[in-house]
């Protein structure tokens, strides 16, 4: 019988970035290290030695060669026909496309449709349905259930030999690379099953702040004084859900039943999130505007962020030097 490490090595040889997961489907804490590169065999071996490791997941995105997944959660399908109708629509539009995909069944009876593409995005809901009265009685704030969503950049997908996961079509050695047009076809078909009309988001109106550059100040410090981190967050999929006073309340991208995921304090000029699913941000940590820019626009590279902000006209050119990572505060005892 093959060990977890042997399965992981096989995925590694096929160009994927495998990491281990536990019984609650959570990957190892350092899985984010493999968003842009695959683990080495030695690193994978260490992951497989973790005492709680029971299965494997693939890190989607660049680390796995542009891997993206359409995740269908059939436990929320009230019609009993979602999978059949979805696959029939794909076959009608592009008969060869469905046959080329790798399809896995999941622990809850759902489906994962795996492919690679030059164009991929972050985890995104594609189809939802309204919650039933019984569901609302249990979770009153969860007004919808996600039927179909993507697993993309900064996401992971469980794969065999994880308990309950099985490949039922296709071959991992030949996961197809589909075109951007084929990807959009899959998305449009998935969206056709959406039953929830998304509320129109009130356009975010940037706050009025000083626009004159400050002499003798670094680009990062200047952006902390003049930049608009809320506009950056909105650009990256966050939604403004309230603006009481100097606080801007925001909801993170992706599937969540929460009312808010974080706040921006315009007086203190820091952003913080209390969600553990708001990557690249850490919960219970305050981020200054320049840190928000660095995390969202520069992949956490603060030196690059300083250069980019300088190029955008922030700071005194005489003060452009590599910065330290800038956070506003952390909860006592919290480790980044």
UniProtKB/TrEMBL annotation:
* InterPro entries in UniProt: DNA_primase/pol_bifunc_N
Q: Which residues form the DNA primase/polymerase bifunctional N-terminal domain?
A: 8-185
Q: What is this protein called?
A: DNA primase/polymerase bifunctional N-terminal domain-containing protein
Organism encoding this protein: Chitinophaga parva
């Amino acid at each position: 019988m093959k060990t977890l490490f042997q399965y992981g090595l096989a995925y590694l040889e096929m160009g994927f970035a495998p990491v281990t997961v536990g019984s609650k489907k959570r990957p190892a804490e350092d899985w984010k290290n493999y968003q842009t590169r695959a683990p080495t065999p030695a690193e994978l071996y260490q992951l497989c030695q973790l005492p709680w490791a029971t299965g494997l997941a693939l890190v989607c995105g660049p680390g796995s060669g542009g891997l993206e997944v359409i995740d269908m959660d059939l436990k929320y399908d009230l019609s009993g026909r979602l999978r059949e109708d979805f696959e029939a629509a794909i076959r009608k539009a592009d008969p060869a496309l469905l046959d080329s995909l790798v399809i896995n069944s999941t622990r809850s009876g759902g489906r994962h449709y795996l492919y690679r593409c030059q164009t991929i995005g972050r985890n995104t809901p594609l189809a939802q349905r309204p919650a039933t009265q019984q569901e609302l009685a249990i979770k009153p704030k969860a007004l919808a259930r996600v039927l179909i969503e993507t697993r993309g950049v900064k996401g992971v997908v469980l794969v065999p030999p994880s308990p309950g996961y099985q490949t039922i079509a296709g071959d991992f050695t030949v996961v197809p690379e589909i075109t951007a047009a084929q990807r959009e076809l899959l998305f449009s078909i998935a969206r056709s099953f959406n039953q929830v009309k998304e509320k129109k988001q009130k356009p975010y109106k940037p706050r009025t702040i000083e626009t004159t550059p400050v002499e003798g100040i670094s680009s990062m410090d200047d952006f902390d004084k003049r930049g608009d981190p809320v506009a950056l967050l909105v650009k990256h999929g966050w939604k403004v859900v309230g603006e009481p006073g100097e606080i801007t309340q925001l909801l993170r991208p992706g599937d969540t039943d929460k009312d808010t995921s974080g706040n921006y304090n315009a007086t203190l000029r820091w952003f913080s999130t209390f969600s553990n699913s708001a990557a690249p941000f850490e919960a219970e940590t305050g981020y200054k505007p320049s840190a928000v820019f660095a995390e969202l626009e520069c992949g956490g590279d603060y030196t690059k962020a300083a250069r980019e902000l300088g190029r955008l006209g922030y700071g005194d050119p005489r003060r452009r030097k590599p910065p330290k990572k800038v956070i506003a505060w952390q909860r006592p005892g919290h480790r980044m």
